[in-house]
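Our example pasted here:


***
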Amino acid sequence: MLGIEELKENIGITKTTVECPVKGCCEIIERQRKGFKREEKFKCPVHNIYISPSTFEYQSELDNLLWKDQADLDLFKMIKTVKREAESHETIVKMQLLGMFLDSWKEIIWLKRL
């Protein structure tokens, strides 16, 4: 997993391209629009990360997690299940509540690990 010290402070972004965020990497990737897509044309061939102007993701979704103990993996599985449901009003409310819970949960876990 890339640490903050391995990432550029600023990346080049144009209307059509985005620069790989890893220090020392000069790869220029096609810019994503309207949602994040994990397609080859949006992947840095050197670091195997999918890039958008505001974020990046690893090839393996589990590599995007900071912690991988059983509680984290169970929560991740639950989130993925809820996100795949139809976007009914009930599902949207569930997602909002889950988001509020996750924000609090992340802070508690972070403090606990200090």
Summary: The CA atoms of residues 3 and 108 lie 21 Å apart. The mean pLDDT is 82. DSSP finds two helices and five strands in the chain. The chain has two domains: 4-60, 70-112.
